[in-house]
Amino acid sequence: MKTIAVLTDFSASAEHATQFALHMAKKMKARVLLFSVCAVPSAKQLVLAGGQEPDEHALIDFGHRMTRNLIARTFPGSYLPEVKVDCDSSDIVDIMTDIMQNEEVCLLVTAPAAEQDLAAYMLSDACSLIIDWATVPVLVVPKIAPLRNFEKIAFASQLHEEDINSIAEFGSLLEDFAAELMVAHLNSNPSDSTIREAEEKLHRDLYKKLDCGGVYFRSIPDVDNKKNWNWLKANKRTDLLAIVQQPKEQMTRFFKRGQNEDVSHHLTLPVMVLPKRP
User: Which SUPFAM superfamilies would you find in this protein's record (predicted)?
Assistant: First the structure.
């Protein structure tokens, strides 16, 4: 059975991410597996955090409370995902090892620290290490993300050869939502014929290789010096942003969008990072 793993430190942000994971699990007919992870601010502390035993009762109580909250907002007779807890360790290295060895885990959910901007968390050492370790998609859920079914999802393509396979894998993961999928390429040089050819190839592959409805391609001119997230609002509001893991410098450029000397446009929707496949 598909399992969604959730990292929690019992904060309000982690609680909301857990509720979000349960909402997804209800739609996907999956179970949820909770892990208690130490809240540590740096990569060095993250690696050296071993030796601390998790509070088993706190994690079990947390799971029960999340289940009660889900029941309270669910119609009687509807599917309720099973919630399990793993109390073996609070060391992130041990937790990630357990998750990656569990073949039923299809998604890993985490959240930014309290009041931390989502883009800043995406670029933090803590989040980067989780993404680097993960062999399944990692979903980062900001505290303000509403608990609603996905209606529109944006996949930010880098025009890599494996993008079509990542899109197929991503679509299979979320097929229960029947959301429309906008595959977008932010084109910083629209006059480049090589880029246009790569966009046209991806466009053709979406129809020939995926052969599914609700998927469309958009080439979005990205030539303004002041970058923003307005492209996510084309046609209608995007509920989820998906990207494939990129080298650190590319991830930094992408998530720094909207931050300039005049104004900061914050990224407020959940972000799913797909593992880079060979």
Answer: Adenine nucleotide alpha hydrolases-like (SSF52402)
For 181, list phi and psi in degrees, rounded to 5.
-120, 115
Most confident among 44-58, 178-192, 206-220, 226-240 (mean pLDDT) = 178-192
Q: 152-274: same fold as 3-140?
A: yes
Q: Which helix (H) or strand (E) holds 179?
A: none
Is 219 in a helix, a strand, or coil? strand
| CATH number for the domain whose boundaries are 152-274 | 3.40.50.620
The angle that helices 125-133 and 92-101 make with each other, rounded to 10 degrees, is 30
**Residue 234 φ/ψ, nearest 5 degrees:** -60, 135
Closest CA to 122 of 4, 228, 230, 270: 270
Of 128, 191, 160, 173, give the one whose Cα is nearest residue 183: 160
Query: Which tokens belong to 260?
Result: 């300039």
Say if residues 108 and 2 touch (Cβ distance below 8 Å): no
pTM for the model stands at 0.90
Give the model confidence (pLDDT) of 164-209 as tens digits: 999 998 988 888 998 999 999 999 899 999 999 999 999 999 988 8
